Every structure is written in structure tokens, then in C-alpha cells.
Amino acid sequence: MITRLLPGVRRSFKSLSEKEILALAISSEEDDSRIYRAYADGLRTDFPASAEVFDRMAEEENLHRQSLIDLFKRRFGDSIPLIRREHVRGYYERKPDWLTSPLNLEKTRAQAEDMERQAERFYRAAAAQTSDADTRRLLGDLAIAESQHQQQAVRLEETLLPDEVREGEDKDERRQFLLTYVQPGLAGLMDGSISTLAPIFAAAFATGNTWTTFLVGLSASVGAGISMGFTEAVHDDGVLSGRGSPIKRGLSSGIMTTIGGLGHTLPYLIPHFKIATGVAIAIVFVELWAITWIQHRYMDTPWGRAAIQVILGGVLVFLAGIIIGNV
Predict the structure, then answer these.
(1) Where are the domains positioned within the chain?
(2) Which CATH number is 2-161's, of 3.30.530.20, 3.30.428.10, 1.20.1260.10, 3.60.15.10?
(3) Residue 86, C-beta contacts closer than 8 angstroms, at least 6 positions apart
């Protein structure tokens, strides 16, 4: 009774009446139908075949909703109380990933499967809490239907997403990921890691002061990050090139540039110069290996060529900094 009288307090599932359980099921089906429509709209431009799958799934959820409404009207009349997921303690919630654009194709498919499993568990729990025969039968049928949705989705994908279409969509998604995140991020990491070597180690060997070196490295890293991020964001809006959001590319480039420079800057917070420099040099080699691995893993660059490009360039800049610092 207390939860009925106090606004803002979530009800427990076991406290719900059969009328409220049906109302909750109706609102849940409405929400899921809208979510599938949102998935379809988010995928339609880049992945039209997958969008069609989610359109069909939204139609199925709408049929479930209509069945529940028909049963509710027969038992309780036309006035359906407003009760939603957020009103019930411990009830499953939907993450607002449908608001993200562009949608991640594999993540969206996995989220849809999770939605069906959650709905199945709800209907089984609701059926176990219901005494009316018609209601219990409908909730049980819906639990079975939700459990079969995954198989239905597979059948839809087989019809609407033959292997060649699915492979094409997966390739397009990977290409978009590379263009929007990996490529600008890799360029930023290379710039931040390599271009800051000379000023940082020149300052280190010229002054022998760890704090001064840290300030030089910090300013060089942050300045390079701002410059790279701003340049990436403004030089291409992504409309014609298809490289995606300029803001996302700018953030990827700017953040990775800053990280690349800070990697061998942070050791100079150590007050002992020789120890700080030794740690910084070790981190430089880790950074160069990481860049080489990313180039090989995501950009399909052969190991040998990537190693020569990155390590040779990094070593030359590193030596230049040491030489200048000892002049």
C-alpha cells in the first residue's frame, strides 16, 4: 500500500495486479516497437537490408500490443492505466542506444536479441503471477513468441540479408569505422608520439630538469592535440568523402595526438632525471610498437613496411632531439 500512496516510489513486480501487469505489457510492447523502428531508421541509409529486418520486427511487436489491448478491453474496459518500465523496481530497462547515429550494426543486432530474451522472461514471470485462464494463456503464448523471435530474425535475415548482402553491409560498417575513428586516431597518435619526441628530449638533455621537461612535453602534447583535432574537424565535413562526423574525427585525432605526446611526457614527473629519461625512452618504444600494430591490424599495412615507416621515423626524430639538446 505504501508504494501506491507515495509518488516516485517504484512498485515491486509482485505487487502489481493483473490489470497493471497487462498495462505494463502493453506499454513495453509499444516501447519495443518504437525502438525497432528507430533502429530501422538509424540503419536505413547505410544498411537498408538490415533496416527492413527491424521494420518487420517492429510490426511483430505491434501485433503483440494489439493482442494485449484486445484482452485488456475484454477484461477491464477501455481505460488502460499508465504504467511503464521505470515505474517497476527491478524491471528491465532499455539503453537509449537507438539515439546514437550512426548505429553500430553488430551491437544493434546483439541488443535486439537481448531485448527478446528480456521480454520472454517478463512474460513467463507475468504468466506465473496471473490466475485468469485467458490472460495466462496469452502471456504464455507471448513468452513463446518472444523466445522464437530470434529464430524469426534469423529467417528474416536469410530472406532479406543473403550472405553477399550481409558481407557487403559488414564491410561498409568496418570501412566507416576505419574512416571515422581509426584513420584520424592513428594519424593523431603518430603525430603526437613522433613529433613531440624532438622538443621533449631536447628540453630534457638541454636542461637536465625533469619539471621543465614535463612542462615542455605537456604544452607540446596539448598544443599538438588541439591543432590536429581542429584541423581534422574543419578540413572535411565528411559529406562528399563519406568519412563521417567531423566532430568525431576531430575528437579521435585530437585525443590520440595528446595521448601520444603524454606517454613519454608523464615519466618526467619522476624527480630523478636518469630514471625519468630511461622510463620515457622505454615508453617511446612501446608507443612505436603500438602504432606499428595498429597500422598492421586495421590498415592492412605489412609488418615490415609499418615497422620501417614508424620506427625509423621515430628514431630519427628522437636522435634529432638528443643532438639538439646537447648542442
Answers:
(1) 2-161, 168-325
(2) 1.20.1260.10
(3) 10, 93
